[in-house]
């Protein structure tokens, strides 16, 4: 779920509670939930992740 959360497709709405054997609860950001509109976080500018960042040189962009 971490990859989906990082990409903005899901958000955790309630943490796990091991005392009562309750799992985490998640919400997909594309749908309305709890009377609130869909946030569609995945459509916003992606968060910077240094391990997945591949810089493109400006000279390579000119030929496109």
Keywords, please?
single chain, 64 residues, alpha+beta, two-stranded antiparallel sheet, 2 helices, 14% strand, flat
Structure description:
With 64 residues, the protein is an alpha+beta fold. It has a domain at 1-33. The chain is built from two helices and two strands; from the N terminus they run H-E-E-H. Strands 1-2 form a two-stranded antiparallel ribbon. The longest helix has 6 residues, at 2-7. The protein is flat and about 40 Å long. It starts with a helix and ends with a helix. The model has no long low-confidence stretch (mean pLDDT 80).
Helix-strand topology string:
HEEH
Principal-axes shape call: flat
CA radius of gyration is 17 Å
Mean pLDDT: 80
Q: Which sheet architecture does the biggest sheet show?
A: 2 strands, antiparallel
Which spans have pLDDT < 50 for at least 5 consecutive residues? none
What structural class is derived from the secondary structure elements?
alpha+beta
Helicity level: 10-25%
Through-space gap between termini: 35 Å
Total count of helical runs of at least 4 residues? 2
Total number of beta strands? 2
Strand order of the largest sheet: 1-2
Strand content: 5-15%
Short description:
With 64 residues, this protein is an alpha+beta fold. It is built from two helices and two strands. It has a domain at 1-33.
Note the topology:
Elements: H1 2-7, E1 10-14, E2 25-28, H2 58-62
Antiparallel strand pairs: 1-2
